[in-house]
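Holo prediction. Input below; ligand is glutamine.
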Amino acid sequence: MTVATGRAGVLGLQGDFIEHIRTLRGIGVDAADVRRPEQLDEVDALIIPGGESTTIGKLAAQYGIIPKLRERVEQGMPVWGTCAGAIFIAKDVPRHPHPIAGLMDITVERNAFGRQVDSFERDLDVPAIGPEPFHAVFIRAPLIARTGSGVEVLAKLDDGTVVAARQGRLMATSFHPELTRDARLHELFLSLARG
Ligand code: GLN
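Structure of the complex:
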């Protein structure tokens, strides 16, 4: 699938942004890392990678990213937070010690499945990307504990835990879609930039 979306950015302050850039380039998208606020004007969509949300939040505040990011989202730029990125874009994160962008009307609980050793993989049913299950890698993953009224659930675990959601042009996933070869969630996200 060719994605005519202009340029996609990946916040490159910390975490696995290189893997996202590789996935995007693999589907023919012009992708670059973003580290300074003014670079947000040069991209048409932004992914916030997994990593450590406290570090991403602290650096984003230091670099002056947060106000500019809010401005770009108001202008309609799609943003997708994966794992730590989902924490960073949530409006509500109990006990988070550092700034977050607070974009999406969800409550996200950090490290909700236990410590590093409790990382796990699951084949998830994600109807929005088609009938084939999506192999999802969870690493010290957060869960989406509450979704606001404008938020659509994209995927749940068997016990009903929400692990992927969308609100307009904002998307959040608890897991790491950049660590598998399946680019369907990246394509879904880029379709928000076109739509
Ligand atoms: N536990 C991390 C945090 O709170 C997120 C882990 C990840 O992004 N893989 O930031």
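Residues 7-193 form a domain with the Rossmann fold fold (CATH 3.40.50.880). That is the main takeaway for now.
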